[in-house]
């Protein structure tokens, strides 16, 4: 990258000198944690958590396209959140409602 492109990034209204850069950058941790949970058994997944991750991703993806300055880091992290949340919800729904296995019965 040329020095002028790096300087343009540095001085951008959503660049690294602003919260508009760092908030979505750290939000990637949620998506990474959700990806790490892909190996977790579906019965351990939480509907409220995954609905919240999915809804947050969808709502903020839309918001990030209408604000000024355009924040593509915010957009991409929220698309990732919506995608991982939908995937996890799909796994949970398939396990709870569509699998042929008998539901686990608590022993008394």
Automatic annotation (TrEMBL):
Record key words, sorted: Membrane, Mitochondrion, Mitochondrion inner membrane, Pyruvate, Transmembrane, Transmembrane helix, Transport
Top-rank lineage group of the source organism: Eukaryota
Any one Gene Ontology cellular component term annotated for this protein: mitochondrial inner membrane
Topology versus the membrane: Multi-pass membrane protein
GO biological process, one term: pyruvate import into mitochondria
Places the protein is found: Mitochondrion inner membrane
One Pfam family matching this protein: MPC
InterPro entries linked to this entry: MPC
PANTHER family per UniProt: UPF0041 BRAIN PROTEIN 44-RELATED (PTHR14154)
Family: Belongs to the mitochondrial pyruvate carrier (MPC) (TC 2.A.105) family.
Biological function: Mediates the uptake of pyruvate into mitochondria.
Record protein name field: Mitochondrial pyruvate carrier
